[in-house]
Design a protein that fits this description.
11 helices; 5-stranded antiparallel sheet; 22 strands; 7-stranded parallel sheet; alpha/beta; 32% helix; globular
């Protein structure tokens, strides 16, 4: 059987592809990287030619309301139209348990994303193509994202709402199993073997990874800005259950470096020697930051920031401090910079495609990555953003005083430090 996996190079897609290929099926891992683009339609006809099954596990690159809706509607229409032409007999799509219940609103709410997922599902149901929609609960791998979204300084404020998360391996196994079965023209739910409260889920993750942040239980905290109850995030009756327990998964991941795990960092494959090198460099950034802060205090009068408020331009000033090849990390380099924000200055939306570690020296800055909570940082406080994070807010918190911070990047050698994003 020929099976096309849309989003076949992502977290779930790559696992689904591997499972199906072990069954001697002809499997196409389709994504923009492989020349198949569901937004533009590029490569779709060629990829779907002769296919019996299409598995769609692609996700919107943005969680914001309008871009997410545009992605799922455009992608869905193009894909389903091409499937009709190709004679596909089973469309399988991955969605989220509780999608129809996560439509509330609030500060930083992701309700628009879930409305976009519902629009995608409605297109599938109206297409006339036999289908099965797999609703999965939250992945263990995304617990760190939940923590980041609710972080304020050293605390994480979370609701004790009931959840039933699962490991991505079990999600992929369920999707692959459905793809090999007959179309149900309905939705099937998959979940982890255990129910657990959201605050306790994150608390256990922080403990296992050595993260010092503290979880504060708040019944009104919701879920990504959405008001929820104990039925919102768990499946209904008789879901398919995965086999991996959260405690078992934690025991396998607890040895990962806290510096690359906390605040939504992607999983790291650093060797012990390379991790040590990075740890030493991180120690260096803290020492450099302390020295720079002390030096600034020694030779800067109290009114220096006020003078800067009238004299400096609005653009940030970037001063390179150190660039170093990381010999234990082939192809990687460390880069240390001093960033000075004039009063009222702000950055455009961007990403770094790097691990970025920030330490504030003077003034106060406001930082936020997409899907995370906006935080205001003062001297001595830190911030982290990973290679996949989109930096949606970066600005001076003050209209009258300058701000300064040091940032250390672990990045691909020769790659640009900043890449514009939408």
């Amino acid at each position: 059987m020929k099976i096309v996996v849309i989003g076949g190079t992502g977290l779930i897609g790559s696992k689904v592809v591997n499972i199906l290929r072990k069954g001697d099926h002809e499997v196409v891992a389709a994504s923009p990287k492989s020349g198949v683009n569901t937004i533009t339609g590029e490569g779709l006809a060629e990829a779907l030619a002769g296919a019996q099954v299409v598995v769609d596990v692609a996700n919107s690159p943005s969680f914001e309301d309008k871009p997410a809706l545009e992605f799922f509607e455009t992608s869905g229409r193009n894909l389903l139209a091409s499937e009709k032409t190709a004679g596909v007999t089973h469309h399988v799509a991955l969605s989220v348990v509780g999608t129809d219940r996560l439509l509330g609103s609030g500060p930083g709410s992701l309700s628009g994303y879930f409305r976009a997922k519902m629009a995608q599902e409605n297109l599938i149901k109206a297409s006339g193509i036999p289908f099965t929609i797999v609703h999965a609960t939250q992945f263990f791998e995304f617990v760190k994202n939940i923590a980041q979204s609710a972080t304020d300084g050293s605390t994480i404020r979370l609701s004790p709402v009931l959840m039933q998360p699962m490991v991505s391996d079990d999600v992929a196994a369920a999707v692959a199993d459905v793809a090999l079965g007959e179309p149900m023209n309905a939705m099937v739910e998959v979940a982890g073997p255990d129910k657990i409260r959201q605050d306790e889920l994150v608390r256990q993750f922080l403990t296992a990874t050595g993260d010092p942040r503290k979880v504060i239980t708040d019944a009104n905290a919701g879920y990504y800005g959405i008001e929820v109850n104990d039925e919102s995030l768990v499946p209904g009756h008789n879901p398919r259950l995965g086999s991996v327990h959260f405690a078992e998964w934690l025991s396998r991941t607890a040895t990962q470096k806290t510096a690359t795990e906390k605040r939504s960092a992607p999983a790291s494959n650093l060797s012990g020697k390379a991790a040590k090198a990075v740890a030493l460099l991180l120690c260096g950034i803290v020492l450099a930051a302390l020295s720079l802060r002390d030096a600034a205090a020694d030779d800067s009068p109290t009114n220096k920031s006020n003078v800067a408020a009238t004299a400096e331009p609005k653009e940030a000033k970037v001063t390179p401090l150190l660039s170093k090849d990381l010999t234990d990390l082939p192809g990687k380099e460390g880069l240390m910079l001093i960033i000075e924000y004039p009063p009222g200055s702000s950055d455009p939306i961007h990403r770094h495609n790097a691990h970025g570690f920030i330490y504030v020296l003077e003034g106060s800055i406001v930082m936020q990555v997409r899907g995370g909570k906006e935080v205001t940082l003062t001297p001595g406080q830190t911030f982290y953003e990973g290679p996949e994070d989109v930096h949606v807010v970066g600005r001076n918190a003050s209209e009258t005083k300058a701000a300064k911070f040091v940032v250390f990047f672990v990045k691909d050698k020769g790659a640009p430090v900043l890449v514009p994003a939408k």
